[in-house]
Automatic annotation (TrEMBL):
Alphabetized GO MF terms: heme binding; iron ion binding; monooxygenase activity; oxidoreductase activity, acting on paired donors, with incorporation or reduction of molecular oxygen
Required cofactor(s): heme
InterPro entries (UniProt xref): Cyt_P450, Cyt_P450_sf
Protein name, entry field: Cytochrome P450
Species of the source: Entomortierella parvispora
Keyword field: Metal-binding
Keyword Metal-binding: yes
Family: Belongs to the cytochrome P450 family.
Amino acid sequence: MLAFLSNPPGLAAFDALKIVIPIGIGLASAAYLTMKVVTGDGFGSDKSIPIASLRAGDSTHDKEFDEDQDAFVERCQAENGDVFGVYLMNLNQIVVSGDLVQEIFMNEDFNAGDSADQLTNMRSFLRPMTKAQVEFDSGTIHGLVRDNITPHLPQYTARIVLQLERNLDIEMAKYRTTNKREDGTFLVEKPATVLHQMVATATDFGKVLGSGEAQSYSVWKSFVHRAEYSVSSPVQKHIRILAEAATLVILERRRLEKETEAKGEVYERPDDIMQKMLDSFDKHHFVDLEDVCGYLMILILASVHTTTDTSTNLMFYLAAYPQYIETLYEEQKEVLDQIQKEREAHRQELLAKGQPIGDDLDPSEDRFLSAAAIKRMVHMDSFVREVFRYRTECLALGHRARKDIILSNGMAISKGVTAIINMKSAHQSPN
């Protein structure tokens, strides 16, 4: 590079700069990455936490973990106790098991967002989606879910089920023709892909954050993604489309509200998440409609992956235990039959009294899989809870320490180190 600077043969000064600048950037990047690797987070200064031994020939624990997660964690726990260090996904991580798991969840100095961001560059991706630019640990997302989604899930359940049924018919139609077998059945090679498509159509989220596959921390990938997302977010176009569509809906709602109030009547506000977010505009410090839509897209991002992940596990467990399918199906029929009878009896009672039958007793909704109906399905509830308990990940839900932390057993987890949860010890312990 010095030769180019001193006497670039046959090149004008500007041409020389065109060569020098990329080389300089490349060297600077290499120096930065080297520094990050050399000074990267280790297991911390405290030596009280044992490090799991490596198999002969292995330089990390990844291969042994991938071959048999349960066997790997059981071996490490038997040799080292409830807390031990592992080298997985290009990261030094502290596995926490048993009663100590609660300490990770309850201590605010352990942060799950920091851990997820380290692997996925999540915050760099999400931050350009909102205009308020609040920190994602400020509680805005948590507040939106707590105030606008969780309390109203019973109202949304039937709508979600109907939409999923429609989408399932669309997706299955593709396989009935292309993957049909001689016995009349048809093959779906990747159910997670089908479920993902059902839950959310045409988003860039899967490409950015992965489709449920394990990811590894990479200094270079993190550096590139953060630089890329600071310039442009791949979901900006979706936010603009959503805002344009929402504008028309909001204008129509305002028109109806004025029209209703002009008649001296009370306007019945629409029962959906967007309306609830608009009604709490000032509370959550939204800037404008695009900001609201940005947060809506973040909520969609979270729901797409959690719903797809859970649904895929349920499908595989149904396939693994087909003897339960008939029981679950018959229970649904019995519950819906009973609800249909109760609703019909209520309608007849109102008719006998000469009272009007409201929309809430529409006969076409008698067999909806509502939240109230699902609550009566004891077998279904048990099956779903068991799938949650026996989900496939043995180590998950990493939390990164924001300062040096001493656990109740006296072991220290240093600032910057990730504590990852031994899910089996939490969900399948006989205690």
